[in-house]
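Case study B.
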Amino acid sequence: MRPKDETKREAILQSAMVLINTYGLAHTSISKIAKEAGVSPATIYIYFANKEDLLTTLYVEVRREMAGAILDSIDESLEVVDAFRLLWENLLAYYLAYPDHFVFAEQFHNAPIVDSVDPAEVDTHFEPYVRLIERGQTQGQLKNIPANLINAFVFYPLTELAKHHVKEGTPMEDDELEAAFDCAWDAIRA
Amino acid sequence: MRPKDETKREAILQSAMVLINTYGLAHTSISKIAKEAGVSPATIYIYFANKEDLLTTLYVEVRREMAGAILDSIDESLEVVDAFRLLWENLLAYYLAYPDHFVFAEQFHNAPIVDSVDPAEVDTHFEPYVRLIERGQTQGQLKNIPANLINAFVFYPLTELAKHHVKEGTPMEDDELEAAFDCAWDAIRA
Amino acid sequence: MRPKDETKREAILQSAMVLINTYGLAHTSISKIAKEAGVSPATIYIYFANKEDLLTTLYVEVRREMAGAILDSIDESLEVVDAFRLLWENLLAYYLAYPDHFVFAEQFHNAPIVDSVDPAEVDTHFEPYVRLIERGQTQGQLKNIPANLINAFVFYPLTELAKHHVKEGTPMEDDELEAAFDCAWDAIRA
Amino acid sequence: MRPKDETKREAILQSAMVLINTYGLAHTSISKIAKEAGVSPATIYIYFANKEDLLTTLYVEVRREMAGAILDSIDESLEVVDAFRLLWENLLAYYLAYPDHFVFAEQFHNAPIVDSVDPAEVDTHFEPYVRLIERGQTQGQLKNIPANLINAFVFYPLTELAKHHVKEGTPMEDDELEAAFDCAWDAIRA
DNA sequence: GATGAATGAGCGTTCATTCAT
DNA sequence: AATGAATGAACGCTCATTCAT
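Model:
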């Protein structure tokens, strides 16, 4: 049977994310999530098979949303550098709108539990990004290096910057964003 | 009276790190650490005030060791680019020798518990690195951008690469290292 | 959902009282209470916030029951001496029926934990007794002394006698009861 | 071998009493007593066989001191009523000087652990008191009732009054003492 | 005699999960 | 679908006691 109340499901996921960001995976229990979401602990088991399922589902959905927000406006007609630039700005806009998503994704990504997520489930959504890199390399605009290296100089530095500003509660200034993009682009351009 | 057994303290810290890397902060309990270390749970409380103290102590010590291994051979007589290059190689050597340290530090760094560590306790040990950046900027070899930006393009990408290879169990090839350094240097050089 | 099982709550309170009377406050743990009551330790926390809440609740309920049993039949139409005599007999009957209550109340009353009970919660139920003393003093049948002094010569001696007989397992003979009442009345009468 | 440092033994007993009066038997551990007394937990086991031995020893010594302070000045040349009056004043003086002793003795006396004390060890010291009662009864000044009844109207009421004033931190006024003695004497005199 | 180190057992409490309604 | 009741297992931590010096 299909669950009735979609808002309840969302409340559970959202509460889990907030608690995990605030107190950590280790101190976030089902009953606390239930209380925060305003439902019974038992209700959570109607929407998710168990705690791990809840957490990994949350991670996959967050990653999917992030990928969509960042990549949806990227298309093959754009110059590679402009595509990267757009991607960069999308990422920034997203982090401003949903800082929680970044913080959660980073925590989860660095915990062993991430291994219980099928990488394909996440990777699929980043497919346009992979194609962008391939195009940049074929066209000679990007260094001819493994994709994960490109990754390491595009996503992680910005993610790190974003996290830093979220934590400090300070906004990211335009010129810092500009400088950061220059660094990233210098790092990977041919 | 019996003197404190320093090897016991080390066994506790080491066991904690291994378990946290394997099962995560959330699934690493005092009694599991004790069992892994071959001591009684009560013994842990002779060496550490409580679980948080144990974890933060572990983090600070790991960071200190990392800083030492990476920075000790850096001195002011080196050209800036050579200093960065040396630092890069030190980092790689360290990660090959102590991959656990990287994995643990990343997990801890991305969990909320990191906020209970006094940043100064960690930052002090990276002071030589900060001075290196300043020198590079005064001498015009580095971009004139905030230190945390430089950071974001030097440490995090390599850390990320290192983590990736640790997880996959694959070695990092010389040419990948070379390519990665080129990216990093291109990112930050003036 | 399942409704709360009131018999379970009672079993917990009763088990706590029995164990405390037998082994003392210091040696009565939640898990022992749970075992004695035939429930899980966790179940106790459905009915009580924590151990202290369980103990103080037990004390207040015991005191309330004692007050009811002793004072309910006292009314203002009785002569003061007859009222005291009736109270005396009620007390005796109650101690014969529920010796555990006396023993527990005394142990609790003499332990520092009693300070965490709001005195008002207990005192309210002894209000008729306070009024009886006031009446006896206004009518000139009782000595004009503070209420706690009257108390000290009415309740505590009998309580002590009752405890003594409970402990020894001997019954209180009619003539001892008679003699005891005479002492008490001689102590407080004008 | 005889323990060397008598002050250490006293410090342990005194610390135990203070902690038990403040936090209760249930929350007073050997290691807390040791810390309060400024010794090692292991040292306590040089002076006492185990925790129970420490506690019962403390109780017996407190009772002995109380008996001595109260009864030493009583001798057979005194009129019975004067003897009771003197005893009364001694008791008051003692409670003013050592309120802790009263509070501890009452707590211990009402806990099941008291059963592990040989009553004879305590009763011996109250022998003069028992003889006083016998004399009073033979001479016809006291009611002809069991000794424990006399007890119940002499010691417990005053003890209760004393405890009350200790807890409230208020002094006992002369006239209250006077009134209390009158009550007690009226209770037991022939 | 005196100590701090060391411990297995137990503490009060919360956990993830299931049950009964 | 949704709930609060219920639980055995596990949590972080402290216990009374002993060990090694």
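Residues 131 and 153 of chain C are 17 Å apart (CA to CA). The remaining cases will be described in the next quarterly update.
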